[in-house]
Structures are given as structure tokens and as C-alpha cells.
Amino acid sequence: MTKRPPSPVRNEFSRLEGASLPWWAMAPSVAWRCVQIAILPLRLYVLIAEAIVTTTFASIIVFVVLLWKGYIPDSLVAEQLGVVGNRILGIVQASGIL
How far apart are the first and last CA of the chain? Predict the structure, then answer.
């Protein structure tokens, strides 16, 4: 007994049946993609904020190490902190808190 080859019509029908989905079957994936696109700017802002925080911490660590090793003189630090302290004290006094 010889085996008959598969019908080309049956193969074509199977291919079309698998490729055709109703519109509502794609709705969740389309909605999820829209949410991802809407959130993309927020994710970029978060990445930028993370980079700023990381750079700030790294610069603070480098400053402390340079200060500890003596590359930045204590007199310079005291002078700069004095200027900042005077500005903060001026702002507080102008606000009427003291």
C-alpha cells in the first residue's frame, strides 16, 4: 500500500489558519506596547538621575580622599566653608527665623 503525499490544500489551510488571529487576540500585546512607549521618557529621566547621583557620590569620595591625603590644604577648605556658612547665615537672618 502506497502512502499518499500530503495535500497542498491542507498545508495551505494550516498555514493560513495559524497566521490569522482575530483582532482582539492582539489587543493585550498592543496595549502593553503602548504602555512601554508611554513610560520610556520616565525611564530615561530615571537613568539620567541615577547617573547624576552616581557622579555626585564619586566626586564626594574623590574629594574626601584628596583631602585626607593632603592634596587639598585645610586652609582652603576652611575658607570655602566659611564663605558658604556666611551665606547660609545671611539667608537665615534675612528670612527672620533668627
Answer: 107
